[in-house]
Design brief:
The structure holds two protein chains of two kinds.
Chain A lengths: L1 H18 L2 H8 L2 E3 L9 H20 L9 H10 L4 H28 L8 H24 L3 H15 L5 H9 L6 H33 L10 E2 L4 H12 E3 H27 L24 H9 L2 H25 L3 E2 L6 H22 L9 H4 L12 H12 L2 H4 L16 H4 L2 H10 L13 H11 L10 H14 L1 H8 L1
Antiparallel strand pairs in A: 1-3, 2-4
Chain B lengths: L20 H33 L1 H4 L7 E7 L8 E7 L12 E8 L5 E5 L10 E3 L4 E3 L6 E3 L4 E3 L8 E2 L1 E4 L2 E6 L22
Antiparallel strand pairs in B: 1-11, 2-3, 3-4, 4-9, 5-6, 6-7, 7-8, 10-11
The chains are: A mainly alpha, B alpha+beta.
Bound molecules: FE2/S2 (inorganic) cluster.
Chain lengths: 501, 198
């Protein structure tokens, strides 16, 4: 027994004599941290690293089968989904892992921000973290391109259009991004190189630096209201706290990190299993135009911004906001490197996080069911319900037909069906009078195209007479009441002349 | 505080030998020369690397475009707007399905045409033509265009991009090859060629 023990000890010594890593790694793992930091709030960073590992493994697995060319990428994904045993599951893990990674990185960042952990001496750790966030988003975008389906194809178009808005060098940037004049083989290949070589390489290097700094500077202590960070005293205070109340990272805090990571990986597996792989949607054939391109979850909010921003402001907004936001994030620890850490004493920080979180979630959920997009097949897909036709005159029914045929439905809902781009028309007759309806149809306005060229006069008459029935049995629009009164008074001229006297 | 890394870079066997001061400064100088040399080699190497990387950028604008057929004239009846297809003139088989591209061809009266890019002028999404209401609608952010390509509603900052065209025998040809964006536009009116006739 002792013989085996001695032999293995010898073996260990043989390695350690040549490797020299066991001691520093053990010391790093057991480095003391403030007891307060061994908390469930401090687990997001390690979870992000764990998902990154999962992405690397599943990415390599996919690369075993995936054919990285514009010509074959889409077919090879279909092949992985259907012909490779469990191929769908590996694809699903990679896809859901991506969404989870973006989410966890953002949560990690929010936590660090709220706890003031970015303050002295950890400013650079935060700055590297900002680049890690950007690289993570870069992975999400390039990964979406590698799915090379319809969404990817038109998503590249959106990218090109943003580049094309840059003043002076826009055209050059478009060509640089596309690797040529148009979306094609070279475009695909450069996104492949970015997704598989360039960005992962940068990510690995930055993660190493980030983790190194966490070890070197120590994990930030749990913030206390009123306990201010000062450059002159912080390190001494921190070391005193660790001396007094420190615990080794492994195992006192690490067990929580490891447990949380396992839970997250399990959640990714569950999503992958129950919801399956993400895409691919239709093949990347630009001549199939029956498509409604949509970006992946992390970019849905951008999609919403494109639709909602006032057109005149759009280009400056698109080009300047990202630069301002990134600079603000990079500059944050340099500007606010000292002072209060606790959230209860930093109302502006709390407000900022709430505003950003609320607006991002609103924009994302809008992006999921975009009310600004016409429903391209509503005119042929959603029929006018019988209740709008019962007891109507032939002219009014003719109008319903015009309503359907002229794609009004694509933007206007009736009975809850149809597009949301324009207002619902269920009660339109209570809002607009006959003459207003005619004017709106012929001349458009308020973001509605003019139909004067597309409709013949009888069609307009029929359409408007149909629209006039849409009053939900309430009284007609104000102007019509007016008109009724006028015609009544016209019938009794004596009355009106009485009044004028 | 115990620093976990303090042993990491300390070589266990050899202590750092100190040279004679005179030797040392000579090697210091040689090292500097070597570094400079390396920098020079790197700079020379950067030329082909950057040339390769930025190749697509240095090509003159419009030199990507060529005359390509979008179909026979009888595919485009007068008074109507139909989908035309053309092949990317600089495409290769590696492009796969992306090599064939769509565009909208409006035959105004058999002598005048308008050829619109499929790409919405807002963010490049594919616009659909609705012959009944005579509108192009964009599925992405609700851009709408009239039959002549003018903006009817929504966020697009300009009308649909148009290709230059010519009729060669029985064929309609367009001047194409570049993705039209706000800074790389499909229709760059050249003197002597027919363009947008609304
Ligand atoms: S891409 Fe057409 S409206 Fe935005």
């Amino acid at each position: 027994m002792s013989g085996i023990k001695q032999k293995s000890l010898k073996l260990y010594q043989w390695f350690d004599r040549r490797l020299g890593l066991v001691k520093p790694i053990t010391e790093a793992a057991e480095h003391p941290i403030p007891k307060s930091s061994a908390s469930w709030w401090y687990v997001f960073g390690s979870a992000a690293a764990m998902i990154f590992g999962l992405q690397i493994v599943t990415g390599i697995l996919l690369a075993l089968i995936y054919t990285p060319t514009a010509q074959h990428a889409w077919t090879s994904l279909i092949f992985i989904n259907h012909n490779i045993p469990l191929g769908w599951f590996i694809r699903a893990l990679h896809g859901w892992g991506s969404d989870f990674m973006v989410a966890i990185v953002i949560i990690h960042m929010t936590q660090v921000f709220m706890f003031g952990s970015y303050k002295y001496p950890r400013e650079l750790t935060w700055i590297v973290g900002v680049f890690l966030l950007l690289m993570t988003l870069g992975m999400a975008f390039t990964g979406q391109v590698l799915r090379f389906d319809q969404d990817a194809y038109w998503g590249l178009g959106i990218g090109a259009s943003i580049m094309g808005r840059v003043p002076w060098i826009g055209g050059e940037l478009v060509h640089l991004m596309l690797g040529g004049p148009i979306i094609g083989a070279t475009t695909f290949s450069r996104f492949f190189a970015l997704h598989v070589f360039v960005i992962p390489g940068i990510l690995l290097a930055l993660v190493a630096v980030h983790v190194w700094m966490v070890l070197y500077l120590g994990i930030s202590e749990w913030p206390m209201p009123g306990r201010l960070v000062r450059r002159s005293t912080y390190v001494k205070e921190y070391e005193a706290e660790i001396h007094q109340d420190g615990v080794p990272f492994v195992p006192d805090a690490a067990w929580k990190d490891v447990t949380f990571s396992a839970a997250i990986i399990l959640a990714i597996m569950a999503c992958a299993f129950f919801f399956g792989p993400i895409g691919p949607s239709g093949p990347p054939d630009p001549t199939i135009i029956q498509t409604v391109p949509k970006p992946d979850l992390p970019f849905l909010w951008v999609y919403a911004v494109f639709a909602l921003a006032p057109p005149a402001l759009e280009t400056p907004l698109l080009l300047i906001t990202p630069i301002v936001v990134i600079c603000a994030m990079l500059g944050l620890p340099l500007y606010a490197g000292e002072g209060e850490k606790h959230w209860s004493r930093r109302p502006v920080a709390v407000l900022m996080v709430s505003v950003i979180a609320v607006s991002l979630s609103i924009l994302t959920s809008l992006g999921q069911h975009p009310p600004w997009s016409p429903v391209m097949d509503a005119w042929s897909g959603d029929a006018v319900q019988p209740k709008y036709l019962k007891g109507r005159t032939p002219l009014q029914r003719q109008g319903a037909l015009v309503f359907q045929q002229m794609q009004c439905r694509n933007c206007h809902a009736l009975g809850g069906l149809g597009g949301q781009r324009g207002p619902d028309l269920d009660m339109v007759a209570t809002r607009l009078s006959e003459s207003e309806l005619i004017r709106q149809v012929l001349q458009g306005g308020g973001n509605m195209p003019a139909y004067g060229n597309a409709l013949s006069p009888p069609q307009v008459t029929a359409l408007v007479s149909f629209l006039e029935t849409l009053n939900g049995n309430e009284r007609p629009a104000q102007n019509d009441v007016h008109r009724l009164m006028q015609s009544e008074s016209a019938q009794s001229p004596g009355h009106s002349s009485d009044e004028s006297q | 505080m115990k620093k976990p890394w303090k042993d990491l870079f300390k070589h266990p066997i050899i202590e750092n030998p100190l040279d004679q001061p005179s030797e040392h400064s000579r090697r210091k100088f040689l090292f500097k020369v070597a570094v400079l040399l390396n920098g020079a080699v790197g700079a020379v190497l950067a030329v082909p690397v950057l040339g390769y990387l930025l190749g697509p950028v240095f090509k003159r604008n419009d030199s990507y475009n060529h005359w390509v057929p979008v179909g026979n004239l009888d595919q485009f009846p007068p008074g109507e707007t139909r989908l035309g297809r053309y092949r990317n003139p600089e495409g290769t088989p590696a492009d796969g399905q992306t090599r064939t591209l769509p565009c909208w061809v409006r035959n105004i009266d058999n002598t005048r045409f308008q050829v619109f890019a499929i790409n919405c002028a807002h963010m490049e999404c594919p616009v659909h033509w609705f012959p009944q209401s005579k509108l192009f609608m964009c599925p992405c952010h609700g851009g709408v265009y009239y039959q002549d390509g003018a903006v009817a509603a929504g966020p697009p900052p300009r009308g649909l991009y148009q290709y230059k065209y010519k009729v060669a025998g029985n064929q309609l040809m367009i001047w194409a090859g570049e993705l039209p964006t706000l800074s790389t536009q499909a229709s760059i009116a050249k003197p002597g060629s027919k363009t947008c006739l609304g």
